Amino acid sequence: MSSTDPVTINVAVIEDQTPIRESLAWLINDSPGFRCTGAFGSMEAALAKLGGDLPDVLLMDIGLPGMSGIEGVREIKQRWPQVLILMLTVYEDNDHIFHALCAGACGYLLKKTTSEQLLKSIRDAIDGGAPISPEIARQVINLFQRFAPPAQANYGLTPHERRLLKLIVDGHSYKSAAAELGVTVNTILFHVKSIYDKLHVHSKSAAVAKALREHLLN
Fold first, then answer.
1. Could you give the C-alpha distances from 211 to 99, 155, 173, 186, 215, in angstroms and in order?
2. Do 28 and 108 have their domain in common?
3. What is the pLDDT along the chain (218 residues), one digit of tens a residue?
4. Domain carrying residue 194
5. Residues 6 or more apart from 67 whose CB is under 8 A from it?
6. How many CA atoms lie within 13 A of 82 on its CB side?
7. SS3 179
8. What is the pLDDT of residue 3?
9. In a 10 Å sphere around its CB, with 0-12 CB exposed, 13-18 middle and 19+ buried, how is residue 136 labelled?
10. Which end of the chain has the smaller Cβ count within 10 Å, N or C?
């Protein structure tokens, strides 16, 4: 957490529609255990100020004026790879889903997500989950199953790393993966970093996407 209070989740919002942006900021600040560090109408405005009070989680629209949300994900993950990014959008098509997750978003939520579910998704992201709206989940699976594996994809994953990656693909959080493998969460985090380095990705969702797209666990 970037806050000195360990129970507080710091959240920023990038949304160009003022009523939605203000509603999200109000919801976050009015919910115990959450704090809105900033609400921005464009990627450009966010990039200029995010570093001054870095959030734990960033809620981001895709259809933004100027730099798009997907371009913004890449830029933010390059500058601040530790920030978790949840897309919050109206787009349900495969193209937007694919590019957002591959860019480094850790979750993909539709704007019709309820306030209660949105807050739960933020907590899930902090706990190592990859929140995805139910309407999107099946599309994600179908989407990545279409891709043929490259010839002889081999990233040098150890058997233990492959087991851990399989648990992550199956939806385990770091905590539940640790319990499943009988190790500590710190050990899981150590191996996750190694997996990310070998796969050349920067987030759980990108690792899952690559594993499914290239059939690494078959």
1. 15, 11, 16, 23, 6
2. yes
3. 444 445 799 999 999 999 999 999 999 999 999 999 999 999 999 999 998 899 999 999 999 999 999 999 999 999 999 999 999 988 877 788 888 888 889 889 999 999 999 999 999 999 888 888 887 877 776 666 565 455 446 688 888 998 999 898 888 888 999 999 999 999 999 999 999 999 888 888 888 888 887 778 76
4. 149-213
5. 42, 43, 44, 75
6. 9
7. helix
8. 42
9. buried
10. C
Q: How far apart are CA 192 and CA 70, in angstroms?
A: 24
Domain co-membership, 14 together with 60: yes
Dist. CA 201–CA 155, nearest whole Å = 12
What phi and psi values does residue 7 have, to the nearest 5 degrees? Answer: -90, -5
Residues 66 and 19 in one domain: yes
Distances in Å between the alpha carbon of 150 and those of 83, 147, 195, 196? Answer: 30, 9, 18, 19
The domain boundary, picked from 123, 143, 163, lies at 143
| Cross-strand bridge partners of residue 146 | none
130, 183: one domain: no
Q: Which amino acid makes up residue 117?
A: Q
Structural domains of the chain, count: 2
Residues 133, 180, single domain; the answer is no
Amino acid at residue number 85: I
Please answer whether residues 128 and 153 qualify as being in contact, where contact means their C-beta atoms are separated by less than 8 angstroms: no
Residue 2 lies in a domain: no
